Fold this sequence. Notes:
Elements: E1 2-3, H1 4-14, E2 28-31, E3 36-37, E4 39-45, H2 48-53, E5 59-64, H3 76-88, E6 91-94, H4 98-101, H5 107-115, E7 122-123, E8 127-135, H6 136-146, E9 151-153, E10 159-170, H7 173-180, E11 185-191, H8 195-202, E12 205-208, H9 217-230, E13 233-236
Parallel strand pairs: 4-5, 4-13, 5-6, 10-11, 11-12
Antiparallel strand pairs: 1-3, 2-6, 7-8, 8-10, 9-12
Helix pairs in contact: 5-9
Amino acid sequence: MAKLAEIVAYLDRRLDSRNVPEPYGTNGLQVEASQEVTRVGLAVDACLQTFEELKDCQLIVVHHGLFWPKISRVTGVMAQSIGQLFRQGTSLYASHLPLDVHAELGNNAQILQQLGFSRGDLFAPVGYLADVDLSLADLHGLVESRIGPARLLDFGPSRVTRVAVSSGQASVGMVDQAVSAGAQVMITGEAGHPIYHAALQAGLSIMLAGHYQTEIWGVKALMPELEKEFQVQTRFVDIPTGF
């Protein structure tokens, strides 16, 4: 049995949470509902379905937590979610951008590992570059076989020597950043409408592999570490959103 405080301190330190700028939410322990931990659940999203499916866990670790900017009241859906955690005695830990950018455990580093690519320089806020040598068609096939279905916007050359990887949602500004970094392809989760013409004009191919699907890798990578460090049981619950 492990102490909640010890696991939280380990995650804060391992993910370097305090040193990663986070404009979108609150990283770290979000809900404290138990002090002793034997089972840790992991998921992408903090939501009622996640909590109910992991009700036998004393701690849940997620990528997308409950608290985001402009959330200042615990009412409605938020009250239901937090109430469920307290009723079942489950604490909640969230790691957003720290679990995107981490050089070993992060979503982007893990995606590159899944694809068999070596991690290169940092790209945009939380992504990475990788030097490769394969056709666009082969790269697309590799992404679909190892990450998941990916929509291809084929706007660049047929031969790829550098890719930019950024999990979650890409912004229009990342198009110029990818091109400036020498990438012919950007692999991401999802993107807004304006990115289509920006990428077309820049000659940058884009692969959209799903916001959810590109962000399962970080929490999964934490599982063996927590098991080894604290002798706890871990379980990942897969709740795809389709985004």
